[in-house]
């Protein structure tokens, strides 16, 4: 049994990947993210993770005012070298209905980003992703927005409790 060659798109260009280049890549595994110019591949997700996402998505969308919608697992183009994929997002209804771009959101579209914490990404989900998303979204929507909209927030869900399923 031989080792398969690494696909050419895995090799970063000099200086690392940019969000623009990342968003044009094809053939990547599901839920690949761009963090600090590097590709980050997600481990296979289990039932707990999927159930948490489904429940959060349903409840957030059900309770959101008409000008907001919940979505799942969409990339957010935060900056030149940052394009994370939060598990659940609450975005403006305008962004949700927008046809182009259809594969990602801009920071100003995002009101809330949620990560269901998984063992393979606990550090990233609890510290790096929330801080980066919050910092970028706040810069974009904070002082420059003229309407009284909620400030962008990032949250992480609790880890699963033993003996309890969502």
UniProtKB/TrEMBL annotation:
Pfam families reported in the protein's UniProt record: Uma2 (PF05685)
Gene3D superfamilies: tt1808, chain A
Ranges of biased composition (kind: Low complexity): 139-166
Span of domain Putative restriction endonuclease: 20-127
SUPFAM superfamilies reported in the protein's UniProt record: Restriction endonuclease-like (SSF52980)
Region (Disordered) residue spans: 117-166
InterPro entries: Nuclease_put_TT1808, Restrct_endonuc-II-like, Uma2
Name this polypeptide is given: Putative restriction endonuclease domain-containing protein
């Amino acid at each position: 049994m031989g080792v398969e060659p690494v696909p050419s798109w895995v090799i970063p260009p000099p200086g690392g990947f940019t969000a623009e280049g990342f968003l044009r890549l094809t053939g990547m595994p599901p839920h690949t993210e761009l963090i600090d110019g590097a590709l980050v591949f997600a481990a296979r997700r289990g039932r707990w993770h999927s159930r948490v996402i489904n429940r959060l998505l349903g409840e957030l969308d059900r309770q959101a005012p008409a000008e907001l919608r919940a979505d799942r697992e969409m990339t957010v183009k935060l900056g030149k070298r940052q394009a994370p994929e939060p598990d659940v997002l609450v975005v403006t209804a305008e962004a949700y209905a927008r046809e182009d771009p259809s594969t990602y959101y801009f920071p100003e579209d995002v009101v809330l980003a949620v990560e269901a914490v998984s063992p393979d990404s606990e550090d990233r989900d609890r510290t790096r992703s929330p801080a980066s998303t919050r910092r970028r979204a706040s810069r974009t929507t904070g002082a420059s927005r003229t309407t009284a909209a909620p400030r962008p927030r990032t949250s992480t869900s609790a880890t699963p409790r033993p003996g309890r399923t969502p």
